[in-house]
Amino acid sequence: MKKLISSSFRQIALAGAACFLLLGSGAAPARAADTAFTPAQRAEIVDILRNALKSDPTILSDAISALQAKASAQKATSALDAVRRNKADFGESNTDVVLGNPHGKLKVVEFYDPRCPYCRKVLNDLDKLVASEPDLRLVEKVIPVLGPNSVMDTQAILAAGLQNAYLPFQKALMADPASASTDRIRRIAQHVGLDADRLLADMKSPKVVAAASHNLELARSIDLEGTPTFIIGDKEIIPGAVSYDELKAALARLRKAG
């Protein structure tokens, strides 16, 4: 049979590309493949790919990894586009609690769930970060993603904000290991000097419910998958409980980007 593709490197590359054209999801890729190759070429490509995978199975895993990386990059680009379109709701928000410099140029947003152990883990690092970065404006967005108990704690934190005690209540609540309950919330509220009856009433107020719902809508707009998640300016999104050093490095990149 006449060789349709001369070099082995090109064979593998072409086979890999054709494989995803032929086997990719949806009808459009298949139609594209039909117009790009003759039946004889397609048969040879399949044979090349089969032989290549036998000799080096990493070819397929590398191709899958590349596709996953491309999908992740596209997702991050889409999320950052949403951040850029809605600056007033993200880094420039004036309806959320802001840590650090209210007029800081290094704008960071943290989405967190008060019952998330990883969110609790980064609390001290965030205090340290704010203390070390005089130009940091850190917007805190509390969201309930871990069920009814998270809804209760989220509403309690937002209600504490109506008594100008968001941060002391947040820290006390997230440090308390007891099971979620209204008695626990009342005890913590009294401990930090709040009007517990008012806080419990405010938890169900339209203002608190709307604030929690709005934060959830913003989280969905960036396809948030878990907490904590950090939005660094409008340049990058970092999911997970990253270390203090990683956050410092992200701020250095943001500062350099201007």
From TrEMBL:
PROSITE patterns named among the record's database cross-references: THIOREDOXIN_2
Signal peptide start-end: 1-32
Keyword vocabulary terms for this entry: Disulfide bond, Oxidoreductase, Redox-active center, Signal
Gene Ontology MF term list: oxidoreductase activity
SUPFAM superfamilies from the UniProt entry: Thioredoxin-like (SSF52833)
Record-linked CDD domains: DsbA_Com1_like
Residue ranges of domain Thioredoxin in the record: 65-256
PANTHER family named among the record's database cross-references: DISULFIDE BOND FORMATION PROTEIN D, GLUTATHIONE S-TRANSFERASE KAPPA
Name this polypeptide is given: Membrane protein
Species annotation: Acetobacter indonesiensis
Phylogenetic placement of the source organism: Bacteria, Pseudomonadati, Pseudomonadota, Alphaproteobacteria, Acetobacterales
